[in-house]
Design a protein that fits this description.
It is a single chain. The chain has about 475 residues and is α+β, with helices and mostly antiparallel strands. The protein folds into three domains: about 325 residues, Neuraminidase; about 60 residues, Serine Threonine Protein Phosphatase 5, Tetratricopeptide repeat; about 40 residues. Helix content is about 30%, strand content about 30%. The chain contains ten helices and 27 strands. The strands form eight sheets. Strands 3-27-26-25 form a four-stranded antiparallel β-sheet. A four-stranded antiparallel β-sheet has the order 4-5-6-7, with no helix packed on it. A hairpin with a 4-residue loop joins β22 and β23.
């Protein structure tokens, strides 16, 4: 009897576990006021690239992905000391293992491919950047540039490599980027991160003794963890900190992305304490949609250009759609997302669903000023998920553009967006005053005239009643 009961309970637990896994696999979410709100599936796994075929073996502790303009997938296969070129569906094309002849790559951890098909490889342990053509022929190499500004302690171990439209090589150096020109000359720093303000730390340093100050760790600006550069030269980067972890850096080094907290705190399984998110890579599609990869939770967070969270998906695990140790993310021209897993030695390909494609298209069309088309798309989103608040906010923004302020107020009210509601109400009040300005003036004039007439009538009556005495006091 007990044995049978044990079997039943075990089976029930297994079924429940599988059901919970299936539910987690089907339900993605969006962050609203730091709360998770379930949404329909945003991305589906449509391919898993594992074995490379053609005798190329398997990936080994790979670190970086790059998708070229001609739609090839390049992998910095770090543990195998090579760069692998694949088709987007994972077919092996070729590998690059040395340049020049006889000088093998040593733990390359970054790769960039320009419009001509030339590769720039962060050959990390060889302390150089290697420039080769698409056939693997050596062109040049870049080593540590000579500059007093870099300091004697600076170690040149390039990992992520990117080149901007003017041909300047960019590398991460802690709290900023260094730039190197085509002649291997140092061309300065850009995009320095700022120190986070802490009132508590400021007060401690104001009133602490010199001994106490010396024991406290020196405040250090947040370090960059990864970056990409778009076709306009804008740098999109992730940092390791509590705030402003996503940055958009313009040509003069200023962060112009919305300031705030991105991602979510992550539970450390060892200490059972919440820790800051650890963003390890970033990808930006042709429409400016930003996807960032958080390594501790295996989550992918997607944002628009205004800092709105569009969706969150992924997670830790061994089944499709989850990761063990994700290290890199890339996006192709069709919006498919590629995620490299260092531990599982695979690349998972995520294809956007109709739901998230509609969301992204609505965001893009609004940015392009196509308001009527935007509203139709947001209405489609609401027909799929009536609780997707960004759709209501999007319709509210369009209605404000169309000067339908009362309707906009209603859309914002549905999702309790106080800021949007206040804006719509302010416009509605101003519009009402403007439309009724003549009547307001006439009504005010009539009221003033009536007050004067009534006052004079009362004064006259008082004069008669008191023989003019009270009237003189009024004069």
């Amino acid at each position: 009897m007990h044995k049978r009961l044990f079997v039943v309970l075990t089976a029930f637990t297994l079924i429940l576990s599988l059901s919970m896994q299936a539910l987690a696999d089907k339900m993605d979410y969006v962050l609203e006021d730091e709360e998770r709100v379930p949404i329909p599936k945003a991305y589906e796994v449509t391919n898993v690239i594992y074995g490379l075929g053609n005798g190329a073996g398997f990936l080994n502790q790979a670190e970086d992905l790059f998708i070229s303009k001609d739609n090839y997938l390049y992998v910095a296969d770090t543990g195998n000391n090579r760069i692998v070129k694949l088709t987007l569906d994972g077919q092996f094309v070729r590998e690059y293992t040395q340049a020049p002849e006889g000088k093998a790559f040593n733990a390359p951890s970054g790769v960039y491919v320009d419009e001509d098909g030339d590769l720039f490889i962060g050959d990390t342990n060889n302390q150089r950047i290697v420039h080769i053509n698409s056939e693997g022929e050596f062109i040049e190499e870049f080593v540590k540039p000579e500059s007093e500004l870099l300091g004697a302690e600076f170690t040149f171990t390039p990992s992520k490599v990117y080149i901007n439209p003017t041909g300047m090589i960019h590398l991460i150096r802690g709290q900023n980027f260094i730039r190197i020109d085509s002649s291997n000359n140092f061309r300065g720093f850009v995009g320095a991160t700022e120190l986070s303000f802490s009132l508590r730390e400021m007060l401690v340093r104001m009133f602490a003794t010199e001994e106490q100050k010396s024991k406290r760790a020196r405040a250090v600006a947040e370090s960059y963890s990864n970056f990409v550069i778009d076709d306009s030269g804008m740098i999109y980067a992730t940092t390791l900190g509590k705030r402003n972890q996503i940055r958009k850096i313009n040509s003069v080094g200023q962060n112009i992305y919305k300031k705030g907290i991105y991602g979510e705190p992550v539970m450390d399984p060892t200490t059972q304490k919440l820790t800051d998110p650890y963003f390890v890579d970033i990808a930006v599609d042709k429409d400016g949609i930003i996807s960032v990869l958080e390594q501790k939770s295996g989550k992918i967070y997607q944002y628009d250009q205004e800092g709105n969270n569009l969706c969150v998906f992924g997670g830790l695990g061994t089944w499709k759609g989850t990761f063990s140790l994700p290290t890199s993310i890339a996006v192709d021209s069709e919006g498919r997302i590629y995620v490299l897993d260092r531990n599982l030695n695979n690349i998972q390909v995520f294809t956007p669903t109709k739901f998230i494609n509609t969301v992204k298209k609505a965001v893009t069309l609004y940015k392009d000023g196509l308001y009527e088309e935007t509203k139709e798309l947001w209405e489609t989103v609401i027909s799929i998920d009536a609780n997707y608040s960004l759709a209501h906010k999007g319709i509210g923004k369009v209605l404000i553009k169309e000067e339908k302020f009362k309707q906009a107020m209603e859309e914002y009210r549905k999702v309790e967006d106080k800021e949007g509601y206040s804006q719509a109400f302010g416009e509605y009040r101003h519009d009402m005053f403007r439309d009724n300005f003549t009547w307001v003036v006439l009504t005010t004039a009539v009221i003033i005239a009536l007050i004067i007439i009534i006052f004079k009538a009362l004064k006259k009556r008082a004069d008669k009643a008191w023989g003019g005495g009270l009237g003189r006091e009024f004069d």
